[in-house]
From TrEMBL, chain A:
Keyword presence, Hydrolase: no
One GO term (biological process): transmembrane transport
Family to which this protein belongs: Belongs to the binding-protein-dependent transport system permease family.
Domain of life of the native organism: Bacteria
Coiled-coil ranges (or none): none
Protein name per Swiss-Prot or TrEMBL: ABC transporter permease
Alphabetically ordered keywords of this record: Membrane, Transmembrane, Transmembrane helix, Transport
GO CC aspect terms: plasma membrane
Membrane topology of the entry: Multi-pass membrane protein
Organism for this UniProt entry: Cryobacterium gelidum
TrEMBL record, chain B:
Lineage start: Bacteria, Bacillati, Actinomycetota, Actinomycetes, Micrococcales
Family: Belongs to the binding-protein-dependent transport system permease family.
Domain of life: Bacteria
Name by which UniProt lists this protein: ABC transporter permease
Annotated compartments: Cell membrane; Membrane
Annotated signal peptide: none
Chain segments carrying region Disordered: 224-251
Bias-annotated ranges (Polar residues): 242-251
GO BP field: glycine betaine transport; transmembrane transport
């Protein structure tokens, strides 16, 4: 415990480092996954190609990816940019499938009604399909946020600074309290980002609070990570 | 492009393919470790998952734990357990078994839950015992999702076993850490490529198994066009047709 009290500054600095890595990755994952998810939802050929690609991408273990990526994109192995690119790739891999599923869950009749009252494909996507897919997208994004925060710690073993540095440093110096502090800080950060997303969801989709049970089964499958 | 040549040179060097530190030995260690961890985790998680899925009790608890475990950083758990039990293989075994349980548990109970209640009622109505319902109805129908859980657990274990080389001298991850320390690009890239290939091959095998275990009766009943047509295949006059609504055409 004494270690924690005398090193609060260090924990805070690493938390900020961690936020700088995670938040851009989560945001970029969502933005990049939207068009790919739409493509996977819309056409059968692109669906097969895109979903297979993201499946393979998601299967790649993080540590080897962190090491191989700098040689492909030319970043320095310890730079935050390297980790952000890798974490974004994982986020996209997870989110594309969710976007495709979410858009697929929109009732066909509703889409046809939107067309009937004069929505174009573009406005129908932004004003009808995307909001209705919202709850599924939010559930997926929450999973992305939590796993991104957890995954970023792996970067510490290649020398990138973040909350994971507390694990490597604590392990090498034999300080249990440092590792425990790192785990607690990581989990708290994940929960905080998760809470922010839930709040954003309530602000942007006020109607979901009334009829949340409809999307529950699908959402639980997404959260459990076993949706096929 | 010199790193590419280094990598190919490292991968094709016969000296790296023999002995205790050779690629076949490390690969075998990695695979054996993954298998043992999964078997222990499955032995714990599958019965609990089936119980939750069959009775419907403790579901909220299972959802909450599998969600919470995702937030726990694997590296943190690994280093902490290593400090407790000492450097060696015990720490990775404990840490990885703990990490593999939630996805398998989730696969087991969602698999059971996904079974249509009417199917279970039908099974009960034709006189099946509870044990028969579990073994002959719920298990085969829920198997694809259970395999899905095993699949994500396997990926997690293979990936984290690589990381475990940080606290124990074993597996393919050793090449990554040794290469990082000595700035030997050939070794760290070669090792990384081997791990990535292993993960992708296992992913492919599981994807195949997941398709194969779908019972034939289920495949036959699946709709063939995936996007699905409109729920109204013909124009709706007057009121919609609803299940159990007998006076649809009474007007």
């Amino acid at each position: 415990m004494t270690w924690i009290w005398s090193n609060l500054d260090l924990i805070w600095d690493r938390t900020i480092d961690h936020l700088v890595l995670s938040v851009p990755s989560i945001f970029l994952s969502f933005v990049i996954a939207l068009p790919f998810g739409w493509l996977a939802h819309r056409y059968r050929t692109s669906r097969a190609v895109i979903l297979t690609t993201v499946g393979v991408l998601y299967a790649i273990p993080s540590l080897p990816l962190f090491i191989v990526l700098p040689f492909i994109v030319g970043t320095s192995i310890r730079s935050p940019l390297n980790l952000i690119i890798a974490l974004t790739l994982y986020g996209v891999a997870l989110m594309v499938r969710v976007v495709a599923d979410g858009l697929g869950s929109v009732d066909r009749d509703v889409q046809q009604s939107a067309t009937a009252v004069g929505f174009s494909g573009w406005t129908s996507f932004w004003q009808v399909e995307l909001p209705l897919a919202g709850p599924v997208l939010l559930a997926g994004l929450r999973v992305v946020a939590v796993s991104t925060v957890s995954l970023a710690t792996v970067g510490a073993v290649i020398g990138a600074q973040n909350l994971g540095s507390l694990f490597t440093d604590g392990f090498q110096r034999g300080i249990q309290a440092e590792i425990i502090a790192g785990i607690v800080a990581t989990v708290l950060l994940a929960l905080a980002l998760d809470a922010v997303l839930v709040l954003l969801g309530r602000l942007l989709m006020p109607w979901t609070r009334r009829s949340a049970s409809g999307a529950r089964t699908r959402r639980d499958a997404v959260v459990a990570g076993v949706a096929t | 492009m010199s790193f590419l040549i280094d990598t190919l040179a490292w991968l094709s060097d016969p000296a790296n393919w023999v002995g205790a530190g050779g690629i076949p030995t490390r690969l075998a260690q990695h695979l054996l470790f993954t298998l043992v961890t999964l078997v222990i985790a499955a032995a714990i998680a599958v019965p609990i998952g089936f119980l939750i899925g069959h009775t419907g009790r403790g579901r909220g608890f299972a959802v909450a734990t599998s969600g919470a475990f995702r937030a726990i950083p694997t590296l943190g758990l690994l280093t902490l357990v290593a400090l407790w039990v000492g450097i060696g293989l015990n720490a990775p075994y404990v840490a990885l078994t703990v990490l593999a349980i939630p996805p398998i548990l989730a696969g087991a109970y969602t698999g059971f839950e996904a079974v249509d209640r009417k199917v279970i009622d039908a099974a009960r109505a034709v006189g099946m015992s509870e044990a028969q319902i579990v073994l002959k109805v719920e298990l085969p129908l829920g198997l694809p999702l259970l395999i899905g859980g095993l699949r994500s657990a396997t990926l997690q274990v293979v990936a984290t076993a690589t990381l475990a080389a940080y606290v124990a001298d074993f597996g393919l991850g050793r090449y990554l850490f040794a290469g990082l320390r000595t700035r030997d690009y050939g070794e760290m890239l070669g090792g990384s490529i081997l791990v990535i290939l292993l993960a992708i091959v296992l992913e492919g095998v599981f994807a195949l198994v997941q398709k194969l275990v779908v019972p034939r009766g289920v495949t036959a009943g699946l709709p063939t066009d995936i996007p699905g047509g409109s729920s109204r295949s013909r124009p709706v006059m007057e009121s919609t047709i609803e299940e159990g609504n007998s006076n649809v055409h009474s007007t």
